[in-house]
Amino acid sequence: MPRVVITGVGVVSPVGIGTQDFWKALKNGENGVVRVTKFDPSPFKSQIAGEVKGFEPSKRLDIKEIRRNDLFTLYALYTTDEAIEASALDLESLDMDRVGVIYASGIGGENTWEDEHTKLLEKGPGRVSPFFIPALIINMAAGMIAMKFGFRGVNYGVVSACSSSGHAIGEAFRKVRSGEMDIVIAGGSEAPIGPLALAGFCAARSLSTRNDEPEKASRPFDKNRDGFVMSEGSGTLILENLEHATKRGAPIFGEIVGYGASVDAFHITAPNETGEPQAMAMKRAMEDGNIKEEEVDYINAHGTSTILNDKVETLVIKKVFGDRAYEINISSSKSMTGHLLGATSAVEAIACILSLQEGIITPTTNYETPDEECDLNYTPNKAVKKNINVALSNSFGFGGHNVTLAFKKYEDSK
Prior knowledge:
Blueprint: E1 4-13, E2 16-17, H1 19-28, E3 33-35, E4 48-50, H2 63-68, H3 71-87, E5 99-104, H4 110-123, H5 132-136, H6 140-149, E6 155-158, H7 164-177, E7 183-190, H8 195-203, E8 233-241, H9 242-247, E9 254-263, H10 276-288, E10 298-300, H11 307-321, E11 329-331, H12 334-337, H13 344-358, E12 360-361, E13 384-385, E14 390-397, E15 401-408
Helix pairs in contact: 3-6, 7-13, 10-11
């Protein structure tokens, strides 16, 4: 089967806008969680979030795009433009019928929904924007990317909560590997930071309430963790047939070799505590990529900083690797970025790829007190230099959706 490589990436995140700033922040253990500034958070139990700072969409987008689209779509367009630039794609020479877009979001146009609902209540139905529905729906990110750049291949949106962009990348991988597409733009975007979403997650008792120390609130695998931190941002990857990429002299960031998925069929929010379904996703990704247990050097964990997830994910890794689980470097990017919901898989996939490329494992920050139920090597607090050839990235979403992606350091087989 054709090999599939990543030839471009783009990031907007709470720790940096643009891949270079994002990667520098992760390596340095910088934190992007702050007290909410988009509205007054004082009535809420959780008053913190991973906000994107200093986003200026006009640097890459035109005024019509900015005016008509929800922020989640603007993030998607912005990171796709960066990824295309990084990939050195010549849009004039591509067969656009063989370039697809599979793009994800867990929530979609949350801010548009809140704004237009307020208009409806205060000013009546005649004041609701004609762009309300297009700005709201999750598939619009994929549609707008296609319209902006002219891609006419397969195109759809993906929704599976916190695993959404993992599924998008996995399905894009399959489209390219099967030969159906030469290139697929894949990723996810989320812009949920508004009163309604914050209230909903607070009501579900999912969020950290460490309001006096926002930068220390997201603390995966630490004994004193008390919930995740809601965040926003976007990650875009360009997946390309290796032969196609080589012919055009494309830069190659890394190779995707495996995709595994499963579902818990257990509970709307809590993970299956046996760890069996999640382990199945990891094993399927490794089987798909013909990866042996002893070859895995690094796991970018889902690592949400919730009591149940971190305990269960630790168990899952032990189920898959046995005693070797203690030898593998594990880390959670969410300790620095917070949880980007539907975009988190894409952003963490990019972190994996850059780790492989540079031989650096980014840390799990805020790891202060070990938990006897979380006893693996989480790469605490400082990045580690290490030759990495194979990395896995886990994502587990509300509804029991599980995804694991497998990446390898790119090596020319010639």
